[in-house]
Design goal:
Chain lengths: 324, 324
């Protein structure tokens, strides 16, 4: 049975988790949110477009819902913030089965519940082509404490959370025609935003600058360095590679450098700062240092080479999506 | 010359008005906004999709930018709020000329400047089909004072601002193959959000419930009545019709009932409330009353008939877009 727009809005409204800071949610001209006193508001928006960010034949609907919201939550994590509410703009082709929509909402709302995020509004439309999703996440952070990209200084140490390259390695497998089940490869199908890690780094004032790894280490590091007007040296051997399969094998290191969508955090800290090896159960690994020279270099067995931003092309021949 | 994504982000960043409540704008993982003390946050998101909400052959790029932002600002107006920042998610087909993008940004940013709204972020992507726009507007309102849809009570009077049916009448002309110039028909091409009117109604505590007329009077009145669990009686002869053309003629009254995209405000006020005939230069017209019976009736020369929600279909054969 194809979906109808009225049933879609009714279903979203019925199932949407609400409460928290949401005074007025779905069903008015705008949502009304309450922000804690002495806090600032964080806002991020992220497209997930069929054919650009996902394919329906590769990604089950639950996965598409989960990944779409992860993109937004990960941006809030990268500011050290607390997510409050999500807004879903959703355009659907007319012939889409209701079961697809139900699966999509299930994946999105399960992740929202995990982080106590309300679904507080959005927009619906018929799509001219494919499933079109734009997710907005609104969060809060104590005034003046958001961790921005521009705070890195020469001699700061560079860290990443978790392991890198796992999502891109799975995507490479999908491109090669392999059937990979969502439950076996959470790195790609169910990435988790590092909300607790981001908040820990903010509360302890550990991170001097931070960005989430959505476009890939080489590109996101370049964004951070550009905003901070610095450069960096990264130790190739220090980069924590994802391990996939049974028996688990490390991914191609090039995917850890240029593969996107790991949704780990990349941050810097002053040289004397004590940084835990593990935060909220997630490993934290030092991988290099910030330099005053604006070049970004990759050090392999002591030899430096340029590290150009070659963030993952989500789909060959398709354009990039980059926040802001 | 086709656009490139890097140049697009650079252009947006260079031209975007900033300041106001924006602490950190374009160029970080999320924007950081400051909300005035004792205020709540308003958030609204609205798609503008090629083929659904506009056609490139009918709508110049400046008009598409203006109309996309109007959709969001009008939602803030309908809450009695103050807009602070807009976020633009923009997916473009690869072959789109740079001049189109420049025109689009000009239309959007001119309107943003008019209302002192910062462009504080968004997302960009290559589009799988056509120009895809999602606009988010964030605003503020003093705590507890947002004018919601659910506040109408039996015996309240019903009012509309401005005149109705003008936008739909122009769209009907476009469908009929008429060449209509944007500067001659601002009702459709350059609708203005009623920000000042909404704020006046909130400050004076005049409106008991409010909604903006984006889908058409019959549909938006039904939304307001549904949320307030009431009905209404509307006097057909009282509805202020738009006048178009030279010499100016009133539009088909059916378009004032069911035509959308006028972006006027529909509000209710308690029976004893003094409501000015004109607010911020915009006429305000009483058109009926709220009833405890949940039916919505249209009274024509004293005779009541059902007024079903028949909001304007933006494009024949295409689906509706409805906020929340």
């Amino acid at each position: 049975m194809p979906f109808t727009e009225k049933s879609l809005i009714a279903r979203i409204r019925q199932r949407a988790p609400s409460g928290g800071g949401v005074v007025t949610g779905i069903g008015d001209d705008a949502a009304v949110l309450r922000i804690p006193p002495a806090h600032e508001v964080l806002v991020t928006t992220d497209f997930s477009l069929e054919g650009i960010h996902f394919r329906r034949k590769w990604h089950p609907p639950e996965v598409i819902g989960h990944r779409a919201l992860t993109r937004g939550l990960s941006d809030i994590a990268a500011m050290g913030g607390q997510p409050i509410a999500a807004f879903l703009s959703l355009a659907l082709p007319r012939d889409l089965p209701q079961a697809w929509v139900d699966g999509f909402l299930k994946g999105l709302l399960n992740l929202a519940r995990t982080f106590k995020v309300s679904l507080a509004g959005g927009d619906t439309a018929e799509s001219p082509a494919g499933v079109l999703i734009d997710i907005v996440v609104v969060g809060s952070v104590p005034r003046g404490q958001a961790i921005v990209r521009s705070g890195a200084r020469a001699h700061d140490r560079v860290y990443v959370t978790g392991t890198l390259g796992g999502s891109a390695a799975v995507l490479r497998g999908l491109f090669a025609g392999r059937r990979l089940r969502a439950r076996d490869f959470p790195q790609h199908f169910h990435p988790m935003p590092r909300i607790e890690v981001g908040q820990f780094l903010r509360r302890r004032a550990i991170a001097s600058a931070m960005i989430d790894l959505s476009d890939g280490l080489s590109t996101d590091l370049a964004h951070l360095c550009e905003e901070s007007r610095v450069g960096a040296e990264i130790e190739r051997e220090a980069i924590p590679l994802a391990h996939l399969g049974k028996p688990a094998k490390p991914v191609d290191p090039i995917l850890a450098l240029n593969g996107g969508e790991d949704y780990e955090l990349l941050f810097t800290a002053r040289p004397g700062m004590r940084v835990p090896r593990r935060i909220a159960g997630i490993p934290v690994t030092p991988i290099g240092r910030i330099t005053s020279d604006p070049q970004i270099l990759l050090i392999t067995r002591g030899k430096p080479v340029d590290l150009p931003p070659k963030g993952w092309q989500h789909f060959e021949g398709a354009g990039r999506s980059r926040s802001k």
